Structure prediction request, 442 residues.
Amino acid sequence: MANDELRIPLQTPTIGRIIGSPSFLTTGSSSFLKACFNGTNAFLDDLTSTPHEIVKWYLSLKGSPTYQRIGLLTVPYALASGGWLSLILFFLITIMTFYTCILLKRCMEVDPSITSYHDIAERAFGKNGRIIAMIITNSELYLVDVGLLILEGENLHKLFPEFMIKLGDFNVDGRQLFVLITALIIFPSMLLIDLSLLSYVSATGVFSCVIILFSIFCVGLFNGVGFHEKGRLLNVKSLPTAVSLYIVCFAGHSIIPSIYTSMRKTYQFNKVLLFSFIVTALTYLATAMVCYHMYGDNVESQITLNLPTSKVFSEVAIYTILLMPITRYALILTPVATAIEGGLSEKYKNKRSVRSMIRVGLLISTVIVACVFPYYESLMAIVGSVFVVSASFLLPCLCYLKISSDLRCGWNCEEMGIVGIFVFGILAGVLGTYSSVSDLVT
Prediction:
């Protein structure tokens, strides 16, 4: 069970297999096309192709990155922050995150008992490695849910800018009110045991991204906005923020082991991964370039905040985004709640009342954070520079180097390249965090 994750040791490792050698194990039932769809969803959104698989992955992964449609909204702001030349770093990040996914696959080939991202961390660094991986991924998910509430509040405030409550001399801002209203709507879903009720609605990642991109393009083409802005070539000062937001776009590493084990023919995994990354990168690139040509340096932290509310295509994009928190919040927060339950004694962890209290407590805490810290772009930049860097750059490199240390003789060019990726992740994390905190202070 999810609650016993820290109590179940991995099986004895199979050292005889050479790391990086092709695996012809038949471990799952997913076809090549289905795996491609799952992989693309992992980076463009958060979901797999069938409702029961979605629930299973949410409850077993404890930290799959579940917010890549947020990346679709912020990537135009990232391009506006860094300028056109920052796209070089976008492609570099695409290549490096693709390669770190390959490293995770190689770690799994060493030991058939590895079935999750946290198993890889435990195989490399023991129980402490698993705990660190759980802290990183669950903190990431918690902050993503905070971001969803902020996103909902800002977009609803754009649709209803006059909405507010005045209590004597005290005014309650419309954004905060919409965050509270959203939380009340989400509240019943936090009490659900069968999350498949939500997963049917949530299994729309790729299609929703297509709808959003098409709607934005139509706004520029038919609603008088046009594509006339030239933008800047390079903005060095905001480049760390741009890099952090680009990194957020490729935060699907926690779900990679489940895609691998679900495949009927695991030797096709590299092709699945290549397809998923190409589709994901092209989608983000098209969104960023279209929006930057539409609004230039005036791009908001969420592109939907730039769209005119009186146009049909704008409303389609905005209302598609507004469905996200309602349909995904409980699914995203479930791994965090189950991790907390795993630390409870046997007497309390299986009681429904305790489980409900934990989930409601998490909901209340995210609402408080969203109201006190309503800075969406800074929050996403911090998520990218701290948590996604750790999960998508640092841990895959460290785990691979540690697991492969027993099987290799000396260092070669590939290992040095992995060290280079690790150093890039450290620099991106430090500079991105510093830039985000500086923006908040100033």
